[in-house]
Amino acid sequence: MVGTEAREYFDRLPARARESFDAAVEKEFVSEPEHLRQILSLRLPAAQLELFLRDNCAVCHTDPATQEPETLFSIDPAAIGSPAHLDLREFVSDVHFRRGLSCAGCHGGKPTDEEMPDEVYDRWPEAPARHADRGWIPGFCARCHADPEFMRGFDPAMATDQYAKYEKSRHGLRLLEQHDSKAAQCVSCHGVHGIRGAKSPNSKIHPRRLPYTCGECHANAEYMAGYRSTAGHPLPVDQLAKYETSVHGRALLERGDLGAAACNDCHGNHAALPPATSSIAEVCRTCHADEGEQFDGSKHKEAFEREGWSECTKCHGNHAIAEAEDSLLDEKSSPLCYDCHREHAEKNSECTETARHFGKSIATLARETNELGGRVSDLAERGLDPDPLSSTVEDLHETLRQARSRIHSFDRSEFDQVVLRGREASAQGRQLLEDAEAEYRFRTRGLGLAVGVMAVLGVLLYLKIREIDGRAK
After folding, report:
1. Residue 161: pLDDT above 90?
2. Spatial separation of the C-alpha atoms in residues 287 and 280, rounded to whole Å
3. Which of 122, 180, 312, 436 is a Cys-bridge partner for 284, taking CB atoms 3.0 to 4.6 Å apart?
4. Does residue 23 sit in helix, strand or coil?
5. What is the pLDDT of residue 404?
């Protein structure tokens, strides 16, 4: 009737779970084979199955004999013409369901109700109204999520200021003040019945999925048509495509580095806003603190504030940030520094000379680091101790990292102090190589001498043996 696998699953359930099934059947909430098969096909752990069977709303709305497609939960909504949010597998994975907050928590009534109470009809706006104006959703979710006392019973560490932040966000202002229902609200990002915690790989707000969640709107040219920035420019829709190719996007989406910046790290979560020119540096230095520290107090800091430029994006860009390479300081490879200096510091030759100095110094330090690093394995292969040189190369890598960071101070004295340490480490590495070569030559000569002595002894031994054999004959 329900299939062999479903029957085997049922037989493996503990007695308490089977009793919950018996109770649902006795009340005729489960009365048809197809309904039973649908529930058993979920293969829920016993505890979750008991939660499900104790919720009359959930059980009733999975019965194809009593529900129309628009109110029927099923394991394949598309196949029967039900809305996508009525996916039964998503519902039983929802973080609210797992915590015991099921249908009644949002729709009203009690899980034990055997008939639909009037509260269910009174709690929400009528369907046409609630679909036309989605402004009721944030306040509805906030009934629980903005109540510290209520949330303490489920997750004491969860913030309860999401709604207050949302009200001041770009999305919140459009939805709540301008009544623009296209603006993102809670279910736009979190989903409806399949809401999961941010750490779940299947969550719409998991770091690796978040760019695509934001991109559902912001990468859709038709959906974003007509929206403009505060400066009056049409909002771009290429942010996601640029981000995917950026150093942050590749780290997060390709390598799975969850520490890499995604949309919310720069724009915020519930208080999402475009970072202001004056605050972009603060956003970036959340991760790049050393570079931000170097920039403070620099000559560029004064110039950037005077011109109204955003500190980091002026040189690095925003959504399409490429990996910072040393070639950015090379006048032949990149005009970045030099074009800007020609336009804004034409009379101050020190600006361009400093950029050239940075470029040449770092290129030299990088070349020496790579050359010495390439010799470490060579020493090991020749039977020499590579550890001293390996340690020196590690110091060089750290010095090179510091030198690249010191560029942001735009001060030769600080930069040159670091480069000097690098040159000293490089000289030490070359001395270690010379010492290793000398040791290798000594070993080679010693080995050659030993082989020669052994060869002479071998010849003498051979001759002596022949002499002895001759006498014996």
Report:
1. yes
2. 12
3. 312
4. helix
5. 92
Residue 203 pLDDT > 80, yes or no? Answer: yes
DSSP state of 178: S
Distances, alpha carbon 383 to alpha carbons 352, 373, 377, 386, 441, in Å? 48, 17, 10, 9, 12
Of the candidates 124, 8, 109, the one whose C-alpha atom is nearest the C-alpha of residue 61 is 109
Runs of H (alpha helix) within 382-411 = 387-406
DSSP conformation class of 173: I
pLDDT in tens, 224-236: 999 998 888 999 9
User: How many angstroms separate the first and last alpha carbons of the chain?
Assistant: 103
pLDDT score at 229? 87
What is this structure's pTM?
Answer: 0.82
Alpha helices, DSSP H only, in 169-220? 170-172, 186-190, 210-218
User: Letter for the amino acid at 370?
Assistant: N
Tell me, what's the pLDDT at 248?
96
Q: Are 189 and 172 in contact (CB under 8 A)?
A: no
CA atoms lying within 13 Å on the CB side of residue 407: 23
Residue 102: its H or E element = none
298 neighbors 411 (Cβ within 8 angstroms) = yes
Give the separation between CA 393 and CA 376, rounded to whole angstroms.
Answer: 9
71, HSE (Cβ side, Cα atoms, 13 Å): 12
- At 162, the amino acid letter reads Q
Residue 125 has what pLDDT?
A: 79
C-beta separation of 311 from 281 below 8 A: yes
Domain boundaries, the chain: 1-123, 143-229+236-274, 326-448
DSSP character for 124? S
Q: Among residues 217, 212, 214, 219, which one has the least CA distance to residue 272?
A: 214
Does residue 298 carry a pLDDT above 90? no
| Confidence check: pLDDT of 118 > 70 | yes
Closest CA to 400 of 361, 352, 436: 361
**pLDDT score of 235:** 93
Return the residue matching tokens 């040791």: 439
Positions of E strands within 35-127: none
Give yes or no for a contact between 135 and 176, defined as CB atoms under 8 angstroms apart. yes
Is the pLDDT confidence value at 366 over 90?
A: yes
